[in-house]
Amino acid sequence: MKKFLILATIVAMVFVFACNPSKKTAGTTAPPTEVAKSTYEANVQTAIMANCVPCHIPAKGGNKKPYDNFANVKTDIDEMIRRVELTPGEKGFMPFKRAKLSDSTIAVFKQWKADGMLEK
Q: Most buried pick, 61, 65, 67, 98, via CB within 10 A?
């Protein structure tokens, strides 16, 4: 009986130590994937052209500060985000006299800012 208990204890210990989740098998972890950062040209410019016309696009008859270029958008991104997040009817709400931008469109501006406001 003693031999059986000793053998059972050894087998249990081997099983417990062999199945330890803290041990890592070499080569089983995937390398981290890099997520592409948003850029003005790939993401933000499209959102502006779709939502800020005609007021902020001079070629389309705009008479406000032009947002058809990287430099102006980069300079004003904080104010742009603040204004598009306002509720329609609040002073300063944008886009003026239009429906509130969707959460996904607003997220484009926020993500671009978070990613470092890259041009290309």
A: 67
| Beta carbons of 46 and 57 less than 8 angstroms apart | no
Please give the DSSP secondary-structure letter assigned to residue 94.
S
What does the block give as tokens for 54?
């005609």
Q: How far apart are CA 47 and CA 73, in angstroms?
A: 12
Residue pair 1/81 in contact (Cβ under 8 Å)? The answer is: no
Whether the Cβ atoms of residue 118 and residue 40 lie closer than 8 Å to each other: yes
pTM of the model: 0.70
Confidence of residue 24 (pLDDT cuts 50, 70, 90): low
| Amino acid residing at 1 | M
Sign of the alpha-carbon dihedral angle for 49, 58, 118, 104: negative
